[in-house]
Design goal:
Helix content is 40%, strand content 12%. The chain is of the alpha/beta class. The chain folds into 2 domains: 227 residues, Amidase signature (AS) domain (Amidase signature (AS) enzymes, Alpha-Beta Complex), CATH 3.90.1300.10; 194 residues, Amidase signature (AS) domain (Amidase signature (AS) enzymes, Alpha-Beta Complex).
């Protein structure tokens, strides 16, 4: 993505007077307002006046050498799942439209603002974040970057987040990831998406899907961009990213579950990326990961997402279930039949899963696997519920493996110009976030060549 702005290049332009925060905001607002683009479907709310005022404030601070960070003045988008002071958090649903406005920013939003990032608007999403496809029947579905004239799904649930970045309506995005909702839309749109270790980033101020599996993470144009945003979200120092040498990397390709039912183009492009890394000296080993077989059994009744979303939604869905997307309410209501004993069993099974997977993966720097088993489906092909369900499962399957083992993961584009977007995922056990960034930073420049 040569000549595509990154956070680092924008920060340099701001520092050296080649652009201003006001100019960046004006450009993003113009793209959002462009009737020929996806802005009307990618964004549910745009507070142009507040964004302009914030940009002008950052420009004044930079003039007197008081900018809160080098990135102050760069516009970012916020998924509609997060509280923004004075705004209603709808979570992509009509059921929350009459809720009271938030009285405070979510901690992650507050941290972005504190670093000087400009909140450009709230992005569209799958209702209540309960799908990897990105379709929203209430507010429309933004078309993904691939063959836009045809109309392919953007991936979900952070659909508008990815489209806002790829279309330069924002220069980074805040998303969530319960089973791939940062990584799937990143893969489908040819950008980078990161799922942090859950415990690093506070979950307050976001509408939950599964408080066991939810993570809050960034979508952006490069590994370095995601690393900057992740550090801000985790309230950590922004440290220059040092790519690790590819030669000598120990990479495990899980042959259990993760390579099943791959679309032909996904399999071909993924294998090509592996060959490229191998030629550069990476040590790639294909391994069985029997722990992954347990996950299907754990999710047989709906798993954590069904149980925990039902607990949150049960009163709302009783009073306003008629305005829910039926595909979403059906999945939530599966949680009604999960007993307390079932849920306790789930907790115990996951604890064992995490412990066993951590030991199994310890000898490797990372696992590598396709982000999704499928390429972005056409929106028109998913009107049928069976087709939707199949595509949704294939989009979520690989990503959700990492949430279940409490890991961290990043999705990098590995397709070449003119090819269908395919994501290449690096993943590791929880707490390995920095290592994943360093590995990914080395890979991103070579796996698409």
């Amino acid at each position: 993505m040569k000549n595509t702005p990154t956070l680092a290049s924008l920060a340099d332009d701001l520092e050296n007077g080649r652009t201003s925060a006001r100019k960046l905001v004006d450009e993003c607002l113009a793209r959002i307002a462009d009737s020929s683009g996806e802005g009307a479907r990618a964004f549910l709310h745009v507070d142009a006046e507040a964004a302009i005022e914030a940009a002008e404030a950052m420009d004044r601070l930079r003039e007197v050498k008081a900018a809160p960070s080098p990135f102050a003045g760069i516009p970012v988008s916020i998924k509609d799942l997060f509280d923004i002071k004075g705004q209603v958090t709808r979570a992509g649903s009509r059921a929350l439209e009459d809720s009271a406005p938030a009285d405070a920013d979510a901690p992650v939003v507050a941290r972005l603002r504190r670093a000087g990032f400009i909140v450009i608007g709230r992005t569209n999403m799958t209702e209540f974040a309960y799908s990897g496809i990105g379709i929203n029947p209430h507010y429309g579905t933004p078309k993904g970057a691939w063959q836009r004239g045809v109309g392919h799904v953007p991936g979900g649930s952070s659909s508008g987040a990815a489209v806002s970045v790829v279309d330069r309506m924002a220069h980074g995005a805040l998303g969530t990831d319960t089973g791939g909702s940062c990584r799937i839309p990143a893969a489908y749109n040819g950008i980078v998406g990161f799922k942090p270790t859950q415990r690093r980033v506070p979950l307050d101020g976001g509408v939950p899907l599964s408080f066991t599996l939810d993570s809050f993470g960034p979508l952006a144009r490069s590994v370095g961009c995601c690393a900057v945003l992740d550090a801000v979200l985790a309230n950590e120092a922004i440290v220059p990213l040092q790519p690790r040498p590819i030669k000598g990397m120990r990479l495990a390709v899980p042959t259990t579950v993760a390579l099943d039912e791959l679309d032909d183009e996904v399999a071909r492009i993924f294998e090509r990326a592996l060959e490229t890394l191998s030629r550069q000296g990476a040590l790639i080993e294909r391994i069985a990961v029997p722990e992954f077989l347990d996950i299907g059994l754990m999710n047989a009744k709906g798993g954590f997402a069904a149980a925990e979303s039902y607990a949150w939604h049960r009163y709302l869905i009783a009073s306003k279930g008629n305005v829910y997307d039926s595909r979403v309410s059906l999945r939530i209501l599966r949680g009604e039949s999960i007993s307390a004993a079932d849920y306790i069993d789930l907790l115990g099974a996951r604890k064992s899963l995490i412990a066993r997977a951590t030991v199994h993966l310890a000898p490797y720097d990372a696992m590598v696997l396709p982000t999704t088993a499928n390429t972005p489906p056409r929106i028109a092909d998913l009107a049928d519920d069976k087709a939707f369900t199949k595509a949704n499962l294939l989009s979520l399957r690989n990503c959700s493996l990492i949430n279940m083992i409490d890991g961290c993961a990043i999705s990098l584009p590995c397709h070449r110009k003119g090819e269908v977007p395919v994501g290449f995922m690096l993943a590791a056990s929880g707490g390995s976030d920095r290592r994943i960034f360093e590995l990914a930073a080395a890979m991103e420049g070579v796996i698409r060549v």
